[in-house]
Design a protein that fits this description.
Layout: E1 5-9, H1 14-25, E2 29-34, H2 37-51, E3 56-60, H3 66-79, E4 85-88, H4 106-128, E5 133-137, H5 160-181, E6 188-193, H6 211-217, H7 224-236, E7 247-249, E8 252-253, H8 263-277
Parallel strand pairs: 1-2, 1-4, 2-3, 4-5, 5-6, 6-7
Antiparallel strand pairs: 7-8
Helix pairs in contact: 1-2, 1-7, 3-4, 4-5, 4-8, 5-8
Length: 280
């Protein structure tokens, strides 16, 4: 990975921080795409210390804001002409129904639509790379997900599992369609289930709500480093140069349920997502 350019969304905590550290250790120039400057700067210092590398940079990107995403891409392209690896790691679990600045339900807005826009705006830099890779952190929660086009903001009967599972199903369908569209370009797209990882996802950073529950059950969870292992594998393994459109768990390709293999649904989601984020 020496000299490779890598973007990690949500690189300031949990699996994102673990991924940032390992990528830097392997010689990559890592851009941590983070929402909070304060938390990002604290994590940047920590990542440099843990990795022993100064080749880590912080750039602000709030995936709940289409404007922020566009500003991030503009800032990135002002400094870099090529991107080797994009790791779409950031994720949220909304405990109560919330909307993004652009009116999207929070889970779908951040976990899918934010990454959808970010990835599409960066495709030109990925295509220039010797072998560009997009790695999407999904989840086995997709199995209970549905897309709910009839109620995209989940204004009726919202619950955390419904919102999160939908966004993770969208992650997988997005990866499948992206891989299809990138055939012949030298850019691959794969997604993964990291396992049950003890991170701050679902913890309210302002109030701390959920932190005590996380501590209580953390014994049963993987560490962020263990959770990040498959994402790092997909981003770096030489033998995966031509592998694309797959769903991994513990470095192995896993079979998906029929709803996540539905090509017509993947195309429909892609077209709907283009409209939502204002892309042609």
């Amino acid at each position: 990975m020496k000299g490779k350019i890598v973007i990690v969304t949500g690189g300031n905590s949990g699996m994102g921080l673990a991924t940032t550290v390992e990528m830097a250790r392997r010689g990559a120039q890592v851009i941590m795409a983070c929402r909070s400057r304060k938390r990002g700067e604290e994590a940047l210092a920590q990542a440099k210390q843990m990795s022993g590398s100064d080749h880590i940079e912080l750039m602000l990107c709030d995936l709940a804001s289409l404007e922020s995403i566009r500003n991030f891409v503009e800032e990135f392209k002002a400094s870099y002409s090529v991107l080797d690896v994009l790791i779409n790691n950031a994720g949220v679990v909304a405990i109560k129904r919330q909307l993004t600045a652009d009116g999207f339900e929070l889970d779908l807005g951040v976990n899918h639509l934010g990454h959808f826009l970010l990835t599409n705006l960066l495709l030109d830099t990925l295509k220039i790379a010797e072998q560009g890779r997009v790695v999407v952190v999904a989840s086995g929660a997709y199995k209970i997900g549905a897309l709910h086009y009839e109620d995209p903001t989940l204004s009726r009967r919202f619950n955390p599992a419904k919102g999160y599972a939908r966004s993770k199903l969208a992650n997988i369908l997005f990866t499948k369609e992206l891989a299809k569209q990138l055939q012949g370009t030298g850019v691959t797209a794969n997604c993964l289930h990291p396992g049950a990882v003890g991170t701050n996802i679902g913890v309210n950073r302002e109030t701390g709500f959920g932190r005590s529950i996380l501590k209580l059950v953390s014994f049963f969870f993987l560490t962020p480093e263990q959770g990040a292992d498959t994402a790092i594998y997909l981003a770096t393994a030489p033998e995966l140069r031509e592998v694309t459109g797959q769903y991994y768990y513990r470095r192995k390709i896993k079979e998906l349920s029929p709803r996540a293999e539905n090509t017509a649904e993947a195309v429909r989601l892609w077209q709907w997502s283009l409209e939502q984020v204002g892309l042609k």
